Amino acid sequence: MILEHILGAVTDPWIAAPLHRLEHQDAVETVTLSREDMSRKRLRACTDKGTEVAIALDRASALFDGAVLLLDDRAAIVLRMEPEEWLCLRPRDLTEAISVGFFAGNLHWRVRFGDGQLQVALERERAVYLERLADRLADGRITLIDGDQP
Amino acid sequence: MNVHLPSAPKGPARIGIGGPVGSGKTALIERLLPALARRGIEVAVITNDLVTREDAERVRRSGLIDPGRVRAVEAGACPHTVIREDPTLNIAAAEDLEARYPGLDLILLESGGDNLASTFSLDLVDWWMFVIDVGQGDDIPRKRGPGIVQSDLLVINKLDLAPYVHVNADQVLTEAAGVRKGRALLGCACRPHGRAASDQADGIEAIIDLIVRDVLFTDIPAEVQGEA
Ligand SMILES: Nc1nc2c(ncn2[C@@H]2O[C@H](COP(=O)(O)OP(=O)(O)O)[C@@H](O)[C@H]2O)c(=O)[nH]1
Ligand SMILES: [Mg+2]
């Protein structure tokens, strides 16, 4: 089946009601995509129930978490984004905060800030990031937070 | 509560072809064009060169495609900027081709040639391949540049040359598969030395099979969305 339109969001009132009914009939299927795949206009994917679908959107549309791609009397297909993993780092002092911030930017890592931490989105295996940070971790310039151990 | 919508005006699929200078990107396009035509797939081409239009001229003169369907974008000093950070020139070229040739199924976009770090923006292309060749050394897959790891398809070209550059083709393919972790990988020989370029061992049809499966979807029967 080729899905060419985003019909709306799971939270849209006119969608939420029929979707809820279909959920009770176990007739809602989910396609889960990585953050990278969410930025595509065309891709092939499989639902959690094993239905193969192709998505082909016009260039102006964009996939989002909670997008509804199919909705009729018998079935619905909902899009979900895979939860992202973040590596949470606490710099020892201001000097290190500036330094590790520059370092992450230089490597094109996607980051966010919060709670005195530099948080790095894991877009590849965790080991790839830890390898680059090994020196800083070893001499305590940064620490990994929250059971976020290597 | 069925939702009936007209088929969307989604336009042709766009595919990126990246890889180091000389790996065979243009040669691959020259092989894809007649093979795609045989399958009835309508194609246009955009080439990115640094400061010339060499590749575009080469494709136009090839006789393999209507010269109007080939556009050149001059990348300036930085070939990866125009396919990743700021792909507006390439998007404009693609929109131009789409407006001029409404029946297009596919636009092939050759990057200007870069190191192993180049990747395509998914705002520009739907899917992209990275072309390397055995002449660059058997350790290339182990170097794991983003192009090698993240591309939707890694093509290892010039397999015909492997014996002459002291490379074990099977070993390179095996190592590349290890680095790719399940992502698609194909070997090919776009212009095999001393062999007819049309023999079945050259790998071109397998590349097209993958393009059809991953972005063209011509194998899927059209069904109206909302009528599953
Ligand atoms: N022996 C051999 N030569 C090839 C093959 N593919 C491309 N070439 C040659 O490699 C050179 C570079 O190819 P080109 O397509 O211009 O590379 P590009 O810079 O990546 O576009 C040309 O001289 C081609 O003829 C192949 O499969 N085998
Ligand atoms: Mg070229």
From TrEMBL, chain A:
<dbReference type="GO" id="GO:0006457">
    <property type="term" value="P:protein folding"/>
</dbReference>
<dbReference type="InterPro" id="IPR004029">
    <property type="entry name" value="UreE_N"/>
</dbReference>
<dbReference type="Pfam" id="PF02814">
    <property type="entry name" value="UreE_N"/>
</dbReference>
<keyword id="KW-0143">Chaperone</keyword>
<dbReference type="InterPro" id="IPR012406">
    <property type="entry name" value="UreE"/>
</dbReference>
<dbReference type="InterPro" id="IPR036118">
    <property type="entry name" value="UreE_N_sf"/>
</dbReference>
<feature type="domain" description="UreE urease accessory N-terminal">
    <location>
        <begin position="15"/>
        <end position="77"/>
    </location>
</feature>
<dbReference type="GO" id="GO:0005737">
    <property type="term" value="C:cytoplasm"/>
</dbReference>
<protein>
    <submittedName>
        <fullName>Urease accessory protein UreE</fullName>
    </submittedName>
</protein>
<dbReference type="GO" id="GO:0016151">
    <property type="term" value="F:nickel cation binding"/>
</dbReference>
<keyword id="KW-0533">Nickel</keyword>
<keyword id="KW-0963">Cytoplasm</keyword>
Automatic annotation (TrEMBL), chain B:
<dbReference type="GO" id="GO:0005525">
    <property type="term" value="F:GTP binding"/>
</dbReference>
<comment type="function">
    <text>Facilitates the functional incorporation of the urease nickel metallocenter. This process requires GTP hydrolysis, probably effectuated by UreG.</text>
</comment>
<dbReference type="InterPro" id="IPR003495">
    <property type="entry name" value="CobW/HypB/UreG_nucleotide-bd"/>
</dbReference>
<dbReference type="Pfam" id="PF02492">
    <property type="entry name" value="cobW"/>
</dbReference>
<keyword id="KW-0143">Chaperone</keyword>
<dbReference type="GO" id="GO:0016151">
    <property type="term" value="F:nickel cation binding"/>
</dbReference>
<comment type="similarity">
    <text>Belongs to the SIMIBI class G3E GTPase family. UreG subfamily.</text>
</comment>
<dbReference type="InterPro" id="IPR027417">
    <property type="entry name" value="P-loop_NTPase"/>
</dbReference>
<dbReference type="GO" id="GO:0003924">
    <property type="term" value="F:GTPase activity"/>
</dbReference>
<feature type="domain" description="CobW/HypB/UreG nucleotide-binding">
    <location>
        <begin position="15"/>
        <end position="180"/>
    </location>
</feature>
<dbReference type="InterPro" id="IPR004400">
    <property type="entry name" value="UreG"/>
</dbReference>
<protein>
    <recommendedName>
        <fullName>Urease accessory protein UreG</fullName>
    </recommendedName>
</protein>
<dbReference type="GO" id="GO:0005737">
    <property type="term" value="C:cytoplasm"/>
</dbReference>
<keyword id="KW-0963">Cytoplasm</keyword>
<feature type="binding site">
    <location>
        <begin position="19"/>
        <end position="26"/>
    </location>
    <ligand>
        <name>GTP</name>
    </ligand>
</feature>
<comment type="subunit">
    <text>Homodimer. UreD, UreF and UreG form a complex that acts as a GTP-hydrolysis-dependent molecular chaperone, activating the urease apoprotein by helping to assemble the nickel containing metallocenter of UreC. The UreE protein probably delivers the nickel.</text>
</comment>
<keyword id="KW-0342">GTP-binding</keyword>
<keyword id="KW-0547">Nucleotide-binding</keyword>
<dbReference type="GO" id="GO:0043419">
    <property type="term" value="P:urea catabolic process"/>
</dbReference>
<keyword id="KW-0996">Nickel insertion</keyword>
